[in-house]
């Protein structure tokens, strides 16, 4: 081991996220004098199988900070920062629980990210090149949440996210700037119909107009696409987050109650009416069977699991066996370390499942997931509307990577 890459110090602290809640930032310093940090984001809509965040009764993450400063710091002292897998496995062993309940997934993922970023900085490399190694890289297609419902908004919509997906462009910059046009057109439509007050932004930068039915939201977003002149280049997607409106065996949506089988027809009808190429968490997180039935019906739609899998290999294996989805959400904080994230991503890729590196609704200004998506050659990246600094930091990093490295942007459907 080269002493200059030995870990000298690991220190956690509390910071604030984009929702005004507290989260943890961990700094890693090596003997060479190089230091970087990692942040732990937090979700509002969480899968029940996600690894556990450590917080106290008042919402403070002091227990996670204490875990970093009192336990993780000692365990990692002197290890070579370039040995990501060894370091992550050391933390996993130190925690010793299935759901990271001793050290906390927030403590562990902030440290794991800081390790990777510090190693890259110490080697004088871009993070995506350090993590991705010698493979060729491309820019992922962005999924932009521009209209909010569910737990991300204060309206009556049950579907949590209405997404635009700029597919048919030659460059990422062209795709992103076209999405900006649609976003601005949507805000203008809302101002005209409901008043400017309803262009106020939700958790992920999307607007939340006073709508009640899914079709009303899809009509509005699709009109914005058409009015912007991108009908053949930008398509629609939805994140239902259906576990949040699944009550006593039924789905409460659009002012009525629907059975799980009713919901299959519900989504199929929407896909027939609108160019929906992406559908995330359409059913409760335990209903692998109906995910599979819906995916078999919607041949041209990427049915995707988030709460279904929670970035956990164990549940992805079940989804692969049942052919539940064509897509997976990848959220490092759901599992707790980058090493486990890589294992999950690789298993999806080996089984020809589309990958979506994703933010959380409670984010920070750290742009790490932009580098991660490029490093792993993810098919897509999901990081909110093109607004609010914690979202634009990721988009701006992708623009920077494209500009500096002339990476390819291509249709990955």
UniProtKB/TrEMBL annotation:
GO terms for molecular function: magnesium ion binding; phosphopyruvate hydratase activity. Its cofactor is Mg(2+). GO terms for cellular component: cell surface; extracellular region; phosphopyruvate hydratase complex. Mg(2+) is required for catalysis and for stabilizing the dimer. Pathway: Carbohydrate degradation; glycolysis; pyruvate from D-glyceraldehyde 3-phosphate: step 4/5. The active site is at 204 (proton donor), 331 (proton acceptor). It is found in: Cytoplasm; Secreted; Cell surface. Mg(2+) binds at residues 239, 280, 306. Its EC number is 4.2.1.11. Catalyzes the reversible conversion of 2-phosphoglycerate (2-PG) into phosphoenolpyruvate (PEP). It is essential for the degradation of carbohydrates via glycolysis. Belongs to the enolase family. This is Enolase. It comes from Acidianus manzaensis.
């Amino acid at each position: 081991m080269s002493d200059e890459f030995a870990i000298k110090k690991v220190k956690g602290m509390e910071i604030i996220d984009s929702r005004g809640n507290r989260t943890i930032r961990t700094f890693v310093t090596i003997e060479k004098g190089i230091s970087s940090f990692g942040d732990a984001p937090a979700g509002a809509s969480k899968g029940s199988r996600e690894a556990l965040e450590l917080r106290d009764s008042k919402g403070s993450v002091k227990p996670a900070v204490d875990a970093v400063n009192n336990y993780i710091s000692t365990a990692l002292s002197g290890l070579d920062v370039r040995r990501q897998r060894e370091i992550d496995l050391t933390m996993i062993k130190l925690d010793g629980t299935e759901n990271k309940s001793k050290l906390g997934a927030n403590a562990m993922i902030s440290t794991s990210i800081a390790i990777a970023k510090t190693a890259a900085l110490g080697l004088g490399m871009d993070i995506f090149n350090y993590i991705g190694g010698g493979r060729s890289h491309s820019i992922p297609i962005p999924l932009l949440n521009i209209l909010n419902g569910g737990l991300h908004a204060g309206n009556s919509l049950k579907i949590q996210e209405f997404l635009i997906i700029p597919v048919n462009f030659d460059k990422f910059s062209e795709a992103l700037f076209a999405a900006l046009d649609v976003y601005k057109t949507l805000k203008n439509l809302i101002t005209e119909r409901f008043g400017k007050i309803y262009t106020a932004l939700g958790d992920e930068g999307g607007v939340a107009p006073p709508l009640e039915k899914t079709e009303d939201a899809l009509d509005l977003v699709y009109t914005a696409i058409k009015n912007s002149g991108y009908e053949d280049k930008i398509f629609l997607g939805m994140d239902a987050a259906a576990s949040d409106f699944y009550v006593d065996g039924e789905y409460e949506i659009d002012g009525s109650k629907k059975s799980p089988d009713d919901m299959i027809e519900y989504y199929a009808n929407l896909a027939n009416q609108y160019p929906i190429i992406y559908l995330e968490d359409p059913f409760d997180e335990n209903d692998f069977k109906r995910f599979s039935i819906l995916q078999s019906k919607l041949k041209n739609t990427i049915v995707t699991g988030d709460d279904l899998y929670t970035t956990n290999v164990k549940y992805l294996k079940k989804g692969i066996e049942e052919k539940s989805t064509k897509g997976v959400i990848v959220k490092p904080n759901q599992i707790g370390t980058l090493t486990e994230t890589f294992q999950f991503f690789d298993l999806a890729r080996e089984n020809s499942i589309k990958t979506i590196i994703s933010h959380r609704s409670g984010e920070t200004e750290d742009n790490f997931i932009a580098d991660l998506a490029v490093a792993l050659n993810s098919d897509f990246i999901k990081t909110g509307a093109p607004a609010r600094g914690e979202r634009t930091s990721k988009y701006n990093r992708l623009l920077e990577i494209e500009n500096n490295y002339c990476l390819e942007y291509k249709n990955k459907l």
